[in-house]
Description:
Blueprint: H1 2-15, H2 18-56, H3 65-94, H4 100-116, H5 118-132, E1 141-144, E2 147-154, E3 158-162, E4 168-172, E5 179-181, E6 187-195, H6 201-218, E7 227-234, E8 239-247, H7 252-270, H8 285-288
Antiparallel strand pairs: 1-2, 1-5, 2-3, 3-4, 6-8, 7-8
Helix pairs in contact: 2-3, 6-7
Amino acid sequence: MNxxxxxxxxVTDFLINPDLWVKIGSICIKILLIIVxxxxxxxxxxxxxxRIFRNREGGKLQIDQRRLETLxxxxxxxxxxxLFFLTVLLVLDQLGxxxxxxxxxxxxxxxxxxxxxxxxxxxxxxxxxxIFEDQFAVGDAVTINAFSGTVMEIGLRITKLKSGTGxxxxxxxxxxxxxxxxxxxxxxxxxxxAVAYEENLDRVQEIIAExxxxxxxxxxxxxxxxxxxxxxxxxxxxxVIRVTAECKPNTHYGVARQLRASIKSEFTARGIEVPYxxxxxxxxxxxxx
Length: 289
């Protein structure tokens, strides 16, 4: 009975100890402050990330809106979970837990993952910077390493490229070392027109200039007046005249085809002769005699 009373007295003394409650209150206040500060940091980080991605919407290259939204949510989730992990560690530290085993385990796990998945980590990091820096976007005509085509999809790990003949190239982002983007700046449609030596070059150039001006009025992809540069070369049976037209990005192929077709039609209507191989019959021996 006396032992039981002594135990009750010890428990009572422990519970009414003011130092204990001061310590518990201090720990609770610190934990509450940690939680409040972490919530504030989460809110600030989310606002900052959203602001950054809104600014990317006005960039020179427009990324697909769904992909932009996916990346924004991804970064927000990563930042939130990092802050959550740090908050848990700080709370455990206030509760008296030894964090060294936890940190050592996390370090060993991260090191193992780093060594075992180096290529995967490299692909993800490279993919993030490709999207964030607007190096290229979905729909751009690009050459990546040795592959040329139109970008079908940009992911954090791979990029899909569709060639002009329909093949789909799947390229790990970590292997991308060189990119040429044909969709950033205006391009130039270059057309060489061959005419016979017998034609009047001044008249031919005037006709080409008229046709080029008409094509510009019909085709909105031409951004400035086409230029007839003059004689480009002299061939065995033809004189080559060059005409150029500045176009919107990656539209020069279609503009060049339209220019060629329009010039050919106008040459036929105006009677301008297009050179072609000719055979001259040589007299036989009797005729020469």
